[in-house]
Amino acid sequence: MRHYFAGSSELMIFAMQELARRIDARVRTHARVLLDPEPAPGADRREQTVRLLAETLPLDADRREESALWLSFVTAARIRPELRTRAVELQAGLDALVRRVLIETERSGALTPGLDLDLELETRRLSALLDGLTLQAVQHPDLVGPDELRAVLRRHLDTLAGS
């Protein structure tokens, strides 16, 4: 590895870029469906939203490893300035995804009519929920499984829809 990377920071940044690329590829598949201005007849926008956002959660062994790597990187970035910029960029990317999903959810009429959505607050709330679910599922995979992660995410979206 020393032939390819100048040091551990460069290796970590490469690993995080690869992780972001993998997640982005999965998310883009769902985003194309969710953000289609003319959805397929009978499309369940709420379930499409759950599937898209769930791609950021540790629902299986591969995504659990990705989530553990993400948490390690974010923790290291707190004390290693050379990693901090990339960690901030990756978080901003997740926040932008969440914001776009919320905008689309509101636009599609999936929210309670007349609900005055505070986009910045709801973006932060949903991002924090995804972060918290990820942390709990990585720390306690036997206690917080994929079905529970999806159920919590659905319940949160239901609160936005007034269900």
Helix content: over 70%
- pLDDT average, as an integer? 86
What is the H-and-E element order? Answer: HHHHHH
Q: What Rg, in angstroms, do the CA atoms define? A: 17 Å
Largest sheet: none
Low-confidence residue ranges: none
What is the molecular shape? Answer: globular
How many helices? The count is 6
- Give the number of DSSP strands: 0
As a percent range, the share of strand residues is under 5%
Straight-line N-to-C gap:
52 Å
Query: Which structural category fits the helices and strands?
Result: mainly alpha
Notes on the structure:
The chain is an all-alpha fold and 163 residues long. 74% of the residues lie in helices and 0% in strands. It is built from 6 helices and no strands. Helix 1 runs antiparallel to helix 2. The protein is globular.
Outline the fold blueprint:
Elements: H1 8-34, H2 45-54, H3 61-79, H4 81-107, H5 119-139, H6 146-161
Tag the structure with descriptive keywords:
0% strand; globular; 6 helices; mainly alpha; 163 residues
Give a brief description.
With 163 residues, the chain is an all-alpha fold. The chain is built from 6 helices and no strands.
